[in-house]
Amino acid sequence: MLDYDVEAARYDATRGGVPRARSAARAILALVPERAGTLLDIGCGTGLVTGLLDRPGLRVFGVDSSAGMAQVAAERLGASVVLGNCHRLPFADASLDAVSAVWLLHLLPDAPAVVAECARVLRPGGVFVTTVDKDSGHDMHSDVDELLAPYRVRKAYDAAPRILAVASEHGLRRAGEARFTGHGQGRSPERTAGDLERGYYASALALDDEQVCALVRRLALLPGQQVPRPDPVYRLLALRKES
């Protein structure tokens, strides 16, 4: 797992920057009802997506458990960002109109507990908008993906059927869906090799040190070392809290 306190300073530059964040924010807002007055972005990271969740009449908050990430987000967005745990959100029951979680649940073995916590803070009629099936967004069958595929761990923490099932247990019903492009996330062989050596894929790939070295060597043999492969396409679900 990455040390997000360390990654905070370079996170945006290595994750597609503003184009990727804008794509995500537009898709989220399309699933948030116009009447919503408050939105909490959990696992907000550096706040790049959070800051683009901009709509008249919508007050947006962010929370992240990484001190490094929360600091960067607070520098960008001010007091609306707090350091906190998505398992124990610092908001009262039924106090928010919307909650968003982008690229978060796939990291959490206890994702159902986070879904339950989001349901707790939502008002009746409020929506929880979250990415699901995140790793499947990279199943583009490029030459880079084909090399990674045998080592991929399908933990499915954020598998759509799992999230929908636990959401239903907590009074959340499917209310919409959207997809968006992860601009700047198409993998080049050179970048993928560097990310492997830094441990970036530790949560997604089952590799020991020897296998990492072997895979890096195989990536070095691919053509177009600095040419990004197709960008991934991510899936969002909107889940509405019943009255």
Describe the structure.
The protein has nine helices and seven strands, in the order H-H-E-H-E-H-E-E-H-E-H-H-E-H-H-E. It has 243 residues and is an alpha/beta fold. The model has no long low-confidence stretch (mean pLDDT 90). 38% of the residues are buried. It has one domain: Rossmann fold (3-Layer(aba) Sandwich), CATH 3.40.50.150. The chain is globular, with a radius of gyration of 18 Å. The N and C termini lie far apart (38 Å). Helices cover 34% and strands 21% of the residues. The protein has a seven-stranded mixed β-sheet, sandwiched between helices.
| Overall form | globular
Structural class: alpha/beta
Total helices: the number is 9
Stated plainly, the CATH topology is called: Rossmann fold
The number of strands is 7
User: Which CATH class is shown?
Assistant: Alpha Beta
Radius of gyration: 18 Å
Number of domains: 1
User: Can you identify the CATH superfamily?
Assistant: Vaccinia Virus protein VP39
* CATH architecture type: 3-Layer(aba) Sandwich
Question: How are helices and strands ordered from N to C?
Answer: HHEHEHEEHEHHEHHE
- Termini gap: 38 Å
Beta-strand content bin: 15-25%
Instruction: Work out the helicity level.
Output: 25-40%
Uncertain residue ranges: none
- Order of strands in the sheet with most strands: 3-2-1-4-5-7-6
- Main pleated-sheet profile: 7 strands, mixed
Query: Average pLDDT across residues?
Result: 90
